[in-house]
């Protein structure tokens, strides 16, 4: 069999693309692109919150040959925008608030998907706990407005509030007009946080995700969001948007809120620097950590293993 005939058989149900990095043609082993869902902090970003040039180049390269990238983060959009701009990629779906708000910043025709907590539930929780002495602060947000029981610069930096013109301060019940995306209690210590989470879970486990986050000053955040506002559900919905099956999803994460993202993807990857709980549920662990472009290095190698390079081929001849 001649070389041209072999190539024609090979590409019959495949997709030829030109690799922008090597300037060679490659055949994807399947015509279905991969959807790559990536957490930000501790995953795509290094410990200083910076994305490396290698990661930027790697993701742009993968998109240039037909694959899709989605940012899936606990950050709000205002804390994600600088990273999105640095990537310089358009038509990238973004899931903020751990999947509570899914949007396409470059496609204004896309109607964002928003999962919020019923204000009736929030009102009930606030009424019950607003006088709890072990709650040192309360934060509430709906992607447009921020409410804090009391202003605190360290809390504002943690949630990327510092560049906002308006933050409402006072009794959260006073500002409970629409359904919020997140409700957060700041507990005085870990023991108090465990007690609050236990009590809240007992009553609201069917309606809320309840997560605990340590804070540098020794306090703890109890982060409440709507059931369904998780990174795994977000990845699934983004896959539907791009018409990519979950069997062609690759995800990267490092922390507790990445469990669903890692387990729902066909190839869930824990960073080398991930917590043990994430490594335990991941199918793979990167060789390089977040400070050494672990995402870009792994993703490039993974995609290379799912492509066949074609050298010295004239596309007109193939056609």
Secondary structure elements and their pairing?
Elements: H1 3-10, E1 15-18, E2 25-28, E3 35-38, H2 40-44, H3 53-64, E4 68-72, H4 77-87, E5 93-96, E6 101-103, E7 113-114, H5 119-129, E8 135-141, E9 146-148, H6 153-158, E10 168-169, E11 182-187, H7 190-204, E12 208-214, E13 220-226, H8 231-242, E14 249-253, H9 259-264, E15 267-270, H10 276-281, E16 284-285, H11 294-304, E17 307-310, H12 315-318
Helix pairs in contact: 3-11
Write a brief structural summary:
The protein is α/β, with parallel strands linked by helices and 319 residues long.
Question: What is the CATH top level name of the largest domain?
Answer: Alpha Beta
Radius of gyration: 22 Å
For the largest beta-sheet, the strand count, sense and barrel status come to: 8 strands, mixed
The chain-level structural class is alpha/beta
Order of helices and strands: HEEEHHEHEEEHEEHEEHEEHEHEHEHEH
According to CATH, what is the topology of the largest domain? Rossmann fold
Count of all domains: 2
Spatial arrangement of strands, main beta sheet: 7-6-5-4-3-14-15-16
Count the helices. How many? 12
CATH second-level architecture of the largest domain: 3-Layer(aba) Sandwich
How much β-strand is present in the residues? 15-25%
> Low-confidence parts, pLDDT < 50 over ≥5 residues?
1-13, 309-319
CATH superfamily of the largest domain: HAD superfamily/HAD-like
């Amino acid at each position: 069999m001649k070389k041209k005939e072999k190539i024609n058989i090979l590409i019959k149900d495949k997709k030829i693309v030109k690799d922008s990095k090597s300037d060679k043609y490659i055949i994807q082993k399947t015509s279905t692109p991969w959807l790559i869902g990536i957490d930000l902090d501790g995953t795509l970003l290094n410990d200083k919150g910076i994305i490396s040039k290698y990661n930027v180049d790697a993701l742009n390269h993968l998109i240039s040959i037909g694959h899709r990238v989605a940012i899936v983060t606990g950050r709000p959009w205002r804390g994600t925008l600088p990273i999105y701009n640095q990537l310089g990629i358009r038509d990238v779906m973004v899931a903020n608030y751990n999947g509570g708000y899914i949007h396409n910043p470059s496609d204004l025709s896309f109607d964002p998907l928003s999962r919020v907590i019923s204000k009736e539930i929030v009102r009930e929780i606030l009424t019950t706990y607003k006088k709890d002495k072990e709650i040192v602060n309360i934060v509430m947000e709906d992607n447009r407005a921020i409410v804090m029981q009391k202003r605190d610069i360290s809390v504002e930096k943690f949630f990327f509030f510092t560049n906002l013109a308006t933050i409402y301060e006072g009794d959260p019940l006073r500002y409970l007009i629409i359904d919020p995306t997140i409700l957060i209690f700041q507990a005085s210590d870990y023991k108090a946080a465990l007690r609050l989470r236990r009590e809240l879970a007992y009553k609201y486990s069917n309606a809320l995700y309840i997560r605990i986050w340590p804070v540098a000053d020794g306090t703890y955040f109890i982060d409440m969001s709507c059931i369904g506002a998780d990174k795994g559900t977000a990845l699934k919905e983004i896959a539907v948007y791009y018409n990519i099956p979950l069997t062609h999803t690759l995800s990267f994460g490092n922390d507790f809120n990445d469990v669903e993202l890692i387990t729902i993807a066909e190839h869930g990857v824990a960073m080398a620097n991930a917590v043990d709980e994430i490594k335990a549920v991941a199918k793979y662990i990167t060789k390089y950590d977040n400070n050494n472009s672990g995402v870009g290095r792994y993703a490039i190698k993974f995609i290379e293993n799912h492509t066949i390079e074609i050298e010295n081929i004239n596309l007109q001849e193939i056609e």
